[in-house]
Amino acid sequence: MVSAAIDNTFGNRLARHHDELDQLFMSLYDDRAALEDLEQAMAAAYEARPDDLKKLDKQREADPDWYKRGTMFGMTMYTDLFAGSLRKLANRIPYLEEQHLTYLHLMPLLKMPHPQNDGGYAVEDFNTVDPTLGTNHDLANLTKKLRAAGISLCLDFVMNHTASTHEWAMKAKAGDPEYQDYYYCYDDRTIPDQYDAIVPQVFPNTAPGNFTWCEEMHKWVLTSFYPFQWDLNYRNPKVLVAMLSSALNLANLGVEVLRIDAVPYIWKQLGTTSRNLPQVHTIVRMLRIALECVCPAVVLKGEVVMAPKELAAYFGTPEQPECHMLYNVSTMVNLWSALANGDTRLLKAQIDALDALPENCWFVNYLRCHDDIGWGLDEPQEWRLGIDPFRHKEFLYHFYEGSVPGSWSMGELYNYDAASGDARSCGTTASLCGIEKALYTHDKPSLERGIDRDLLMHKAMAFLRGFPMLNCGDEIAQLNGWDYKDDPDRVEDSRNLHRSKFNWRAAAKRNEPGTLQNRLWEGMAELRQMRDDPCFAPDAWVTTWDTHNQSVLAIVRKAGDAVLLGLFNFSQADQTAYLDSIEGVALPGSETLKPYEARIIHC
Questions:
Q1: Which of 39, 80, 138, 261 is catalytic?
Q2: Which end of the chain has the lower number of beta carbons within 10 A, N or C?
Q3: What are the residues whose beta carbons fall under 8 Å from the beta carbon of 522, sequence distance 6 or more?
Q4: How far apart are CA 427 and CA 429, in angstroms?
Q5: Which residue windows are transmembrane per the record (predicted)?
Q6: Is there a contact between 345 and 339 (Cβ–Cβ < 8 Å)?
Q7: In the prediction, which pLDDT does 359 show?
């Protein structure tokens, strides 16, 4: 039982959730001693929580929609690529303040093996900052300075797996059966073969199969992603208790948003695809309860790369919520599709599908991040629109590779699979929009078009339900980092094309009128100004609108009597949008837009 010495705040919070937590935990484990271990870990985390963070908890409890404000504006980056270390990043906060950021997502920075760490997603120690980036003290100091600047820090919490060099994995390799039970380990291929017969492969080209032979153990171990990432066995309650304890430890270092990585994968069950199983939601709900008891200032952001019909479940219900928000992966992909072919029909259908989700569903919208663009489009919808899904996907990844006639893009393929014809795409926003190619060929008209495309994409993304997140460097039109090919530790992963060091020399030009950097910098300022409007309130009504022109996307936002219309021309030619009004939404009859123009109209 939890000690009576814990003050009433924690006790009252736990009391509100105790019966549900008991039911959820026992439904998975039927282990009351392990449940008491979890409650003791929660109590200890609350006792250790700094007073300033407890004060923030009370503020956020009184303002639970803080992350839904129209003024939310985010950025994601790698600590080392942007500044070198956490301590140096703290000295760069004025640059972030210039952009009025309220949200900063730092790529994984917990202790990891080098060089094989999948960009930090192979974690050796969930409680310790990687020494190459700093210390736990540096992280706590950074979060404190960010809070003073009005910026909430988001960190990845990699729930599905550990590095094969994690302490648990090392003990498992040494033959300790207790720690072998922290993973999925098998003496022969009987169960792995049954699993592989149904479960899809994540990286069939670069990491085929779902199991890796471990010579030290003389066992097969489940590795859904890469061989050096061992999947955790959440059927073992000790794994859950340890991982939730680590999440609370990060919260006590001042992390305000936990991005839970690959969450649909965390529960495995033979005879299923081991994706989106009910037990996943039980675990996420328990994590949410732990946060609400110990550190209610902290919110959960899920990485769920699934169809819209699968997404609502990860938000839970208003009575039993899970994630506070999710990445808007599907709309990101459809934005790039619309830009390549000038056809917004798929994009509109995708936005409609997301807008139809319950009101508690909230999204982080973005164009580029640390990862590739996976062309997971809505195939049934493509067929309905007369689009061949396979040929369309093939067109898109070749277009953004720059190998299709008329393409302006300079990107690269990622994980091309000749057998299936599947591939993903890499590159920065500016390079994919044509800015790099125009600079390379000294083509000024093409450069103007590239800038227009870049700004169109950002404005359309920022107009969606949810809040926008930039990829660091987008605000200064940072180009691809082709030098990764000269690094033997990075050359095998083409995602490093858009994981290059921040160009501070280029950033210095951001305030010089007429420069490329200034054009993008001012464009991002326009995004923030656009969103400082009542129509971006958390409860605003948002919907697409028919333009009678498949090249032009229209989105209407309404709050009270205020109506805001966003028109986005994804075509390289002038286009006219024809708009019908309804009661309460009076729109202009028609608007003609220039190529790649975004127009915002107060109606």
A1: 261
A2: N
A3: none
A4: 7
A5: none
A6: no
A7: 86
What are the structural domains, with CATH classification, of the chain?
Answer: 161-231 (3.90.400.10), 328-501 (3.20.20.80), 539-602 (2.60.40.1180)
Shortest CA distance to 496 belongs to which of 402, 403, 423, 428?
428
Q: Which of 552, 567, 559, 560 is nearest to 600 (CA)?
A: 567
Q: How far apart are CA 428 and CA 456, in angstroms?
A: 15
Q: What is the pLDDT of residue 4?
A: 46
Write down the pLDDT at residue 420. 85
Beta strands 598-602; 562-569: pairing state: antiparallel
Look up 303 and say whether it is catalytic: yes
Give the chain's residues under pLDDT 70: 1-6
Marked catalytic residue, from 57, 156, 303, 591: 303
Closest listed residue to residue 347, CA positions, set 315, 394, 395, 308: 308
Cα torsion 564, 570, 572, 573 to 10°: value is -50
The DSSP output letter for 566 is: E
Cα–Cα distance measured from residue 219 to residue 211, given in angstroms and rounded to the nearest whole number: 10
Q: For the chain, what is the radius of gyration of the CA atoms?
A: 24
**Looking at the whole model, is its pTM more than 0.85?**
yes
Element housing 570 (H / E): none
Which amino acid type is present at position 144? K
Q: Specify the DSSP class assigned to residue 537.
A: S
- Closest-CA residue to 253 (of 109, 50, 67, 108): 50
What is the C-alpha to C-alpha distance for residues 485 and 202, in angstroms, rounded to an integer? 24
d(CA 12, CA 92): 40
Tokens standing for residue 425: 């795409």
